[in-house]
Queue: 2 jobs
Job 1
Amino acid sequence: MKPGRKKQNPYLIAGMAMTGSAAGLGLLGAFWTPFGTTAMSAAERFQAPSLRHLFGTDNFGRDLFSRVMQGMGTTICISLLVVLFSAFFGILLGALTGYFGGVFDEAVMRVIDAVNGFPSILLALVMISLLGNGRQNLILSLGIVFTPSYVRIVRSEYVKLRDADYIMRARLMGVGKLRILFVHILPNVLPVLGVSLVIGLNNAILAESGMSYLGIGVQPPDASLGNMLSDAQGFLQSAPWYALIPGLAIVWIVLGFSLFGEGLRRLGE
Amino acid sequence: MIRVENLSVAFDGPEVVKNVTLEFHDGEILGVVGESGSGKSVTALTLMGLVADNARVTSGRILFDGQVLLEAGKPRDRGLYRRYQGEKMSMVFQEPMTSLNPTQRVGLQVDEVLRLHTSLSPRERKEKVLESFRAAGLSEEERIYASYPHQLSGGMRQRVMIAMAVILHPRLIVADEPTTALDVTVQNQIIRLLKSINEKENNAMLFITHDLNLAKRICGRIAVMKDGCVVEQGTAEQIFLHPRQEYTRRLIQAVPGRVKKNRSLEERREPGESLGEPVAEVRNLSVYYRESGNSLFDRKKHRCVVQNADFEIRQGESLGLVGESGCGKTSLAKAILGMNRDVEGKILHHTLRPQMIFQDPYSSLNPAGTVGWLLMEPLRAQSAREGARPMTKEDMKEAAYQMLRRVGLEDSYFHRKPSQLSGGQRQRVSIAQALITKPGLIVADEPLSALDVTIQAQIMELMQGLQQELGLSYLFISHDINVVYRMCDRIMVMRQGKIIEIGDTEEVFREPREEYTRQLLAES
Amino acid sequence: MRYLGKKLITLIMTLFLVSAAVFLAFQIIPGDVVTSILGTEATPEMEAKLREELGLTEPPVKQYFHWIGGILRGDLGVSYRYSRNMNEMMPVAELIGDKLPVTLWLAAFSFVLILLISLPLGVIWAKSANPALDAVLGVLTQASMAIPSFFLGILVTYLFGIVLHFFVPGGYVSYEKDFPAFLGYLFFPALSVAIPKIAMTARFLRNSMLTQMGADYVRTAYGKGCTRRRVMYGHVLRNALMPVVTFLGMIVAEIVAGSIVIEQVFGLPGIGRLLVSSVNNRDFPVVEILILYITFVVILVYFLVDILYRVIDPRISEK
């Protein structure tokens, strides 16, 4: 690239700032919060945002800023684990099916086609109803639900690249199959995968908060942005900040990641 | 009179067309010849008013029968241009498939020209479209009228494009590489068609090509472009017989005419030495292609793409393989390389496993690796194999550097990525990668056709030099008869999966036994 | 026609497979249904009786065919949780019956909103050479895609319900009582489902049109002397809409999912809320039927999209 043409990438910078602040607060929230996440105070119920309580308090007088900190941490952490899980199995299955094809590929793809057409939150609901509530089960079921989309992306790249001239060439040289799969092809898949990982992270955040909102994700008294919203909904008239603040926190994270993803995509171009 | 005067065009950066002046005469075909990036297409698109919106005309103007169509400093007048486009000037593009709307019947697409520029009734319009189809050499006009582009062959699509271009008898037709995407035999029909249209209609034609030979056959006058400038302009005769510019001379020499040829195997052979030993023997080989059905219910089809091939490749020779696309050349090559298991018959190799050089230097090098990694990878694979002599990393590095120098690249290229190389440099790396394990046989599948002519000449030289130095054998696949003539000792002609003729290059060129071969040779 | 037949067979086979998979999945989950219904204090006799009643004593394969056969005859089984009276379990069919139309109307309403708004918006966006409009639409769509649907629902409730008093939060009229009023109550929930999808679809159409505008055939059209308008509507739009059809098919599946959440937000008595509560209560017969039902809808939509695609794209229908 010519030095003069190097454009600024405001997407990347804004995305990094937004996700960075959210992740930082979340991480901090795991160790320290101003008031504690479960400390109730009957005297301080439904306080509007103030200097003492930046985000106000809820119906039990708990400090919302503390709870949002914990909630962001929980949401980001769960989503990261979900994406790691699904990306790992996505790459493994996608590489094997895409490169070798055959009956195994056919079978896997049939299943994935069926699953992929299905709304993800619905599938997660089914998985949860099989596995039962709880944090591990939430990660496991969302992980399983998101795996097919990665299999599909990785597979289609492998299908494309397995007949590329340079891969044919590697085969002619007698390079081993595993080395072709993960040394010759994988680096060329990563740019495509990188962007979809960020998108996947977003989807995971939306799914996690959605599940928690429906009461089948993170269980009270642990704070998660989703279950805070569902608690707050009943007090929309009297304490609108109670619902708006955790909701905006979700938007903040998701917007941050999508800006970050867009920035990555432009960087790759 | 139609004139491009002193035209300069720039996009965001520097000018890509510089002070170009072209004049068009009725009944004359003006050829603009140049390598990719020479500015010939931008000139044509600017003339037609079709250049991208971010293009700026920095100097000059375009005159069409006294009307100024475009002038530097003034915005393009689209309304004015629309009255000329399609009616007084029209264009034929390189890719007939993508140049037609894929979801509209081609008849209607031609009809649109009439709808825009005439007030004929629907019936009259249809009659006129069918007539223009006939004029463009399309029989079964009715069927073609109702067809979608994907239902027609490449040649038919280009004829439709031509019909669209000539239907209103424009004063000027611009043809931008109109035959490049087509097969050799079809190419010739299209060339003849364009020539006859030019004679009949007595209009002016601008013919853009990278192929000097083609320009020589069709054009009355030729302008040679380089880096945005017209370096030389004159009648075809002047250009070919008395080129004034060094660049034109280089271009003409680079074109593999039937004049230059490397020394044949017989001449190179020491007296008394017998004909080379075969490095590979192909005995009664048939290759099959399995078409996988597109659903559970379709039965898989088994098609024979190469029938009973029987020949050998000798030590130190270049064996040329020619034929049109789809004749089975590549399938045969893959079978010889052991990449296609669906074969009958025998392939015997007497040397190390053969390697391949591909057509497209952009897709044959792994974009994720550096040049050094690419060159060491074959050695690593070789020494990892059982029974092979293991090589240390230092040895591999040394061998890679040596190979790099041998193909004419400096040491500094070792750490570069393929994306940082030009097409010619990539092809050099590609050759180096194929040769580093010292195979006896190299299969080269159209190794030149993606390159510019001057680069082509360099790569050809390199390949010939390496052959003599290392005693290599080449199986050289090409659709370009002239390249094969220059490179190969023997030549093999394939048609519809069969080898119909094989013999010494000189003999085949002098006295082809088969009618098809004669046709193939006559056409280039 | 032959193609249609093949597709139909595949559709039926898929449904069959999904039903088997669902049945199997709920067979292997841990925990005894009978204990969970009756509690731990039930006598062995009571347990045996219930087991008999639910048909749980038979081998699984027979149970499956019994279940499938029942579904085909309209007998969807009984809920483990809800009962009609002291002695009778609530049939699933009855449980679902009046909730289904609510969800279907909600989904259909949002789909119409998506079509009506996103397609013109996408075209205008693609055509606009105005950088300001481009930026505004870019930010708006990006933002509305980042808002989770339940939060969007809450925002809509707050803004239109509490601040502007356009509707009463939590209010609802049954479609049997007053259909126009019912649709009126569905408007804001449908809008909440639709907004992110509108953004996605408009964006997709715009990108598709921009891609097509760079295609060679567009240059050919200009070369004939077409105006920009003619190129847009005569050539580009049709080609650009083709991938959008597939995209809209996927959107339908998303709408169904969105409806489930939005029902919760607006307190609509649809199958979404039933599904969520049944999952929480581990009321498997209800969950099984609902999953089958949604699968059926989703597969049917894909089937229709496939056929529609064949109608509008000549390149596929020929093969």
Job 2
Amino acid sequence: MSNPKQARSSYYESSARARIAGLLEPDSFHEWLPAAERVTSPHLATLEQPAAFDDGVIIGRGRIAGKNIFIAAQEGGFMGGAVGEVHGAKLAGVLERAVRDHPAAVLLLLETGGVRLQEANAGLIAVSEVMRAILAARAAGVTVIVAIGGQYGCFGGMGIAARCASAIIMSEEGRLGLSGPEVIETARGVEEYDSRDRALVWRTVGGKHRYLLGECDVIVPDSIAAFRQAVTACIDNGDDWSLAALEREHQMLAERVQRFGACKDGRDIWRELGWADPDAIAMLDNDEFVAAAHGHRAKNI
Amino acid sequence: MEWKSVVEKIFPDGHEVEQTGNLIRGYGRCGPHTAAVIGTTDHTDVGVELALAMAAAVINVIRDHPARPIVFLVDTSGQRLRHRDELLGLNGYMAHLAKCVEMARRRGHPIISLVYEQALSGGFLANGMMADVCAALPEAEIRVMGLAAMARVTRIGEERLTELSKSSPVFAPGAKNYLLMGGLDALWEGDLSLCLSAVLKNIDNTDHRRSLGYERGGRMLAYPVVQRVLASA
């Protein structure tokens, strides 16, 4: 059992460290390169920006449901979880260690806006190294599970990296995409994408839409306990890294463009999926939503 | 450089490469090797259709031509910045392309990429940066964001960023910076077909970018940080 007090609490509201404490069995977490080792970003110091002693990501090993796993958790509270050189190397290190040590799974708690602009080149290369390391871990038979449910969502290159994993667990509050709404609004204008229209953003990148589209595998209520249960199930489900699985995914993505390519809004897609009243989706609690989504998702795998 | 000239120079022994929309694909011969060519052109952005088309091209090479080297020709202004593409899950399409490239690698296809014009952030991650060997023409532009935009977002003066970029490769645009940081293996100059055949002679499928960045002095922390993670209790 994990710490019951932390496990009941909101995943969204929790810090990266509290998420780890709530997900793992008590006292099972062993941190690598903890804050005491002061592995910080020198690039931020050059630009006279504050640094964090863990560079915004906590990594280590621990146990969940009796299984030994590796874990990394991005801290949205530090620079929106943005990936710099050290931050990215810590993520890649966990995954590459997994190729060597074969834990039962690697769990990535992602909360990030993507590349940290103050060290943009290092960040972009690091995200690429993380993508390759995720796929290397999977090719080595290690299941890689991504959880998304924090305030900053999961965007930029890390939104691509997330979809390289074996499975994604999201809460309704979680958001997953490539370019964030502000980026698109800045580039194309508010008529293209109004980043302050929270309902529109939610219908575009929110957990329920991602679940219906088949972009995430599991949707859970916003509690650490619910995430833990889903992680355990994903570990048991294992992974399918095969050409056949990729070809199935290709088929799904091709059908998605054909079927929904002309849709202007999440609601149009949901209607096409057979939801008579798309506006009611936001009101359903997680259990009702999952039950109602049966047969009304774009994913049948 | 026009993609046609690039293809002429890389594959003087013959090639059959065609453009459909902004996608280029086909194959070329370089000495004893026949390589598949997949790429984009006209500084195109990459939306769901183009990412899917590139993925289809990779899957076809895996199916029809086992172990054939794949050469990505990169020219992109980045991921498409449209609401519609985000609605459809562009990140998932990009990841699918990256997975196809990884699958090809695991099945013995050497993966080479050449940035011949422009490579920007998200459009570069899913193909060019997935290669075993990533090269660029010297005049190619590689960046996440220009300094002016970066100055606005980070609220650090553009003059200060420009000044700092003279001594640090870490944030400023430019192929040379990516070379120093290990994100590029080499700049290809002179006889491009010699460049490709040299690469094909001793390509391997491990990710060397961290150690390259360390050796070249442009990215001094990534490598030791990973080593420390590997050595931790």
